[in-house]
Design goal:
Layout (H helix, E strand, L loop, with lengths): L2 E2 L12 E2 L11 E5 L3 H13 L3 E5 L2 H8 L6 E4 L8 H12 L5 E2 L1
Parallel strand pairs: 3-4, 3-5, 5-6
Antiparallel strand pairs: 1-2
Length: 106
């Protein structure tokens, strides 16, 4: 099972948190990837898809916010330096929208 760790955790030895199992209908987890560097976005997209995730990729924050108004991704990978807004603003927006029971945003 894929795992992830919290990048903002003060404890660098934090345990990895496994993703929840796939939906009962067999659908894949969707990871929202927001990265303006095309090479990095392609690499992360490939890594995620090879590990069984469905991805939706944005090169700026505004379209990602618009997407999140109508969809609930399982997780989000967000660049902090986006061309149109700070990645931190996007992360706050996603956390406000989904709260603790929605998408995992690290």
């Amino acid at each position: 099972m894929p795992t992830r760790t919290r990048s903002d955790s003060p404890n660098k030895n934090a345990e990895a948190t496994p993703l929840p199992p796939a939906a009962q209908d067999g659908s894949l987890h969707t990871v929202m990837l927001v990265e303006d560097n095309e090479l990095v976005a392609r690499g992360l997209n490939r890594l995620l898809t090879l590990n069984g995730y469905q991805t939706v990729v944005f090169n700026s924050g505004t379209p990602a916010i618009e997407y999140a108004q109508h969809h609930t991704p399982s997780a989000a990978v967000v660049d902090l330096h986006l061309p149109d807004l700070s990645g931190l603003v996007l992360i706050r927006n996603l956390r406000d929208r989904f709260g603790p029971t929605g998408a995992r945003v690290d």
